[in-house]
Amino acid sequence: MPSPSRTADASIPATTTSGIPIQVRRSARRKRTVNAVFRDGVALVSIPAHFSVAQEAEWVQRMVARLEQRVSAEPDEAASENDLMRRAAELSSRYLSGHARPASVRWVSNQNSRWGSATPGRGTIRLSDKLKGMPQWVVDYVLLHELAHLLVPSHGPAFWRLLENYPQTETAKAFLSGAAFASSRGLKGDMGED
What are the backbone angles phi and psi of residue 42, rounded to the nearest 5°? Predict the structure, then answer.
């Protein structure tokens, strides 16, 4: 439920510095956490229902500032997605005879159990942002894997035949298995042999 009108308290801004409306949602289920996201054209700030008006003002200002800072620090998503589309076209041409033609390819931050996903009916591909910073041949493998799913939705023999020509398939699968193992164990930082 949105917060009451802000006209009574001018210290709670009605819009972000870029003019996006701010909506405050009080939740009885929230005890201590505060969250802010851009959703459906508004900056949505979720706070515990028990917050006073002063606490609401403080946290709305703080969280909107963080939200705007995070967004301004992000690379240009349109350019990044154009790069992904261009790379997808190159991989499709080289390894799939150009038959896989995605409608969109984009990075997403909400995939925690898979590296990528495809929706063949819509021609969309989503790559986990956890791939960013991995070797390009690993990202290419995941992208090619999802391109193949646009042609063959299952993981049957016909699907794997589509990936036979990519020379890094087995190495990339091993790399991703190692990355998933390390992540599930909470391993971070540089590791090397003695």
Answer: -130, 160
